[in-house]
Amino acid sequence: TPEGWEGRGTGSEERRCSSLTADRSGSTWPRAAGGPGSSGPTELSRLSHGDLYRLSVTDPDRFWGSAAADRLRWAEPFHRVRDCDLSSGRIGWFLGGKLNVSVNCLDVHVEKHPDRVALIWERDEPGTEVKVTYRELLETTCRLANALKSHGINKGDRVAIYMSVSPLAVAAMLACVRIGAVHTVVFAGFSSDALAGRIQDAGCKAVITFNEGVRGGRVIQLKAMVDAAVKTCPSVQHVFVCQRTETPAVMGERDVRLEEPAVCAPEPLDSEDLLFLLYTSGSTGKPKGVVHTQAGYLLYASLTHQYVFDYRDGDVFGCVADVGWITGHSYVVYGPLCNGATTVLFESTPVYPNPGRYWETVERLRISQFYGAPTALRLLLKYGESWVKKYDRSSLRTLGSVGEPINHEAWHWFHSVVGEGRCPLVDTWWQTETGGVCIAPRPADEGAPIVPAMAMRPFFGIQPVLMGEKGEPLSGNDITGALCISQPWPGIARSIYGDHQRFVDAYFKPYPGFYFSGDGAYRSEDGFYQITGRMDDVINVSGHRLGTAEIEDALDEHPAVPETAVIGIPHDIKGEVPFAFVVLKEDLSDDAPAVLQQLRDLVATKIAKYAVPEHFLVVTRLPKTRSGKIMRRILRKVAMETTEDLGDVSTLDDPSVVKEIIEAHEEYRKQREEEKKKK
Ligand code: PRX
After folding, report:
1. Strand 269-270 to strand 98-99: parallel, antiparallel, or no bridges (unpaired)?
2. How far apart are CA 592 and CA 616, in angstroms?
3. N or C: where does the chain have the smaller number of CB atoms within 10 Å of the terminal CB?
């Protein structure tokens, strides 16, 4: 451990406590439930889960202050637990404290158990996994950090990471963290245009990438995508290139191969310095750079990782998300590493080389917690149980689901077939903006019932509130409303990069004084929560969040397309798929098939392949109100063939448009049926 770094069993208790009590009028601070592997029981660790929850909401300063003091190592102690004003979007936690997230994820564990495996890289080709110890990960992180520093990357600079799931991707994230640079990981499935947009918005000074990536047996040209992206990104001074495959990358003037010394002193950072930006979709065409900061995010990721999944020392934690999404950030990298866990990096796909891949991996790596997305489960259950049953899953203790509602069929299959009915299955609700899990069946005392397909219980410190149509908090149970959270928690996002007003408008204006999630939820008779889906124009395709406005913006760039409207409709495997209503310039209706193909390509180039609409319906005009607003409700009914009850159409500018669109859809449906028959 670098000199002067305190906390987490380094015998610095006295100094930490005295400094903390200064803010608490002399009362003594209890020690929180220590992280996994912490020495000895603490006051909070003796409390039941119910008591922990009660304390977290009745005395959040005490709960979170203790947790932060005990679980994290600080370079300087904080003097104030929180300073938040939700109505203005001002959120600060652990003020005055300095720490480094990479010290908490690496150095503290290297001191205790340098040879414990930190990462198991489950490479695309089964049976070729690579283990990386905490000592090795620290070394690689330091090498990368030194390379960044020697090329002029400093504290506060933004660095884009465009890499497939791998130890080097994790080391790249932690290298930024070590020197105080701010990373923004861009999912390697995004197009070069989408990458460029994120680099420009964040003003990145550097990009870290691979020569190539590999997934499902296919090679992905990552460096070439970066080359194309940085052409329009003048802020980028260097592209750092790591090797994933044997093929040498074509190197240009600003490109740097990585090789540097293996020791790098960590930068002490303020609790509220930026840790990372992660771009996600909202209801406008422009993705937003969600800002997370150091201490609060890390503490929340670490605490949720332990309590939601019942993580214990020695477990092999298997979250199969990509590091390009928030799930990868919180439960592949930061939560598990902060807790000294062995975490799996899954580079492949659920069906490569066959639909037994997940369960073969569980058997080979002896995975204890398996955390994945319902979309993959819905796909796998179609292949039958034998792909699961032929592998030994006795190592599994907890199953988790994330990213979208899990339907009953997938829940029961996961629980009974995969988990043999013996592993608690936790449906976890949270978002890029929440930093970590907010609602999940656990935490709860062991044995507390789990209701299938329900997220159920708020995590420590989370107070869900359901709002009615007039913006009033709804009391009582068996009720549905807009899901808000009434008190800030350490993991909540701090801003939208470069646009704090958008942050305030999106999350705190709709219900003043509350965080608004954008989701609706139901509170059952028993007081448990179930997520009912988005209330805005965000859709969820294969667990990936997508703004319909983003797709519309891409489509509208086509010169033959004056106007489009995109909505989401249900899909039995992907959850939802985009359905595009397209108005073409009049003289082009004969060329419609060619134009539609160009539109597909346009979306793939501007955003990503998964964003390409599954359906295109050419219409002569869209249903609009007199003030010019598109009535999406009607489009949804047409696309889902539920037009018997269209609701109130009196506000439409010209109601005859509805008949036109229904007829066009009927034509489209017939065509598709014929095509299916031919196939
Ligand atoms: O609509 C909710 C859905 O995913 C959205 C958040 O997406 P993202 O920021 O990409 O983060 C996904 C991983 C945390 C939410 O607004 N969602 C997430 N988890 C669930 C869910 N919907 C239903 N049930 C869930 N467990």
Report:
1. antiparallel
2. 10
3. C
- Report how far residue 267's alpha carbon sits from residue 154's, in angstroms, rounded to the nearest whole number: 10
Q: How many domains does the chain have?
A: 2
Instruction: Give the domain-ending residue among 71, 101, 131.
Output: 101
Instruction: Provide the pLDDT for residue 35.
Output: 61
Nearest CA to ligand 1 atom 24: 405
Q: At what angle do helices 167-179 and 134-150 cross, to 10 degrees?
A: 60
Q: What is the DSSP letter of 43?
A: T
Domain ranges, residue 548: 538-678
Choosing from 431, 485, 530, 548 the residue with most ligand 1 atoms within 8 A of its CB, the one to mutate for a pocket test is 431
For residue 27, is it within any domain? yes
Answer yes or no: is 445 within a domain. Answer: no
CA torsion angle 500 505 511 514 (round to 10): -20
CATH at 640 = 3.30.300.30
**Cα–ligand 1 centroid distance for 633 (angstroms):** 22
Query: Which pairs from 131-137 meet CB under 8 Å and 24+ separation?
Result: 132/167, 134/106, 134/109, 134/110, 134/340, 135/110, 137/106, 137/167, 137/170, 137/171, 137/174
Whole-number Å distance, alpha carbon 431 to ligand 1 midpoint, is: 5
User: pLDDT by residue (tens digit) across 523-549?
Assistant: 999 999 999 999 999 999 998 999 999
User: Would 135 be classed as within a structural domain?
Assistant: no
The residues that bridge with 6 in the sheet, in sequence order, are: 74
Q: What is the CA radius of gyration of the chain?
A: 25
d(CA 558, CA 567): 19
| d(CA 594, ligand 1 centre) in Å | 36
Task: Give the residue with greater pLDDT, 11 vs 595.
Answer: 595
At 428-469, the pLDDT tens digits run: 999 999 999 999 999 888 889 999 999 999 999 999 999 999
Q: Is residue 593 part of a domain?
A: yes
Domain end call among 70, 101, 132: 101
Mean pLDDT calculated for residue range 155-166: 97
Mean pLDDT, the chain, rounded, equals 91
Alpha carbons 503 and 88: distance in angstroms, whole number: 9
Give percent of the chain with pLDDT exceeding 90: 83
* Mean pLDDT on 257-270: 84
Label residue 87 exposed, middle or buried (CB < 10 Å: 0-12, 13-18, 19+): exposed
Residue 298: closest CA among 433, 101, 138, 81: 101
The β-bridge relationship of strands 274-280 and 288-293 is antiparallel
Residues with CB under 6 A from ligand 1: 280, 326-327, 402-405, 427-432, 455, 517-519, 531, 534, 540, 545
Q: Which of 23, 22, 20 is nearest to 31 (CA)?
A: 20
Cα of 531 to ligand 1 centre, how many Å? 9
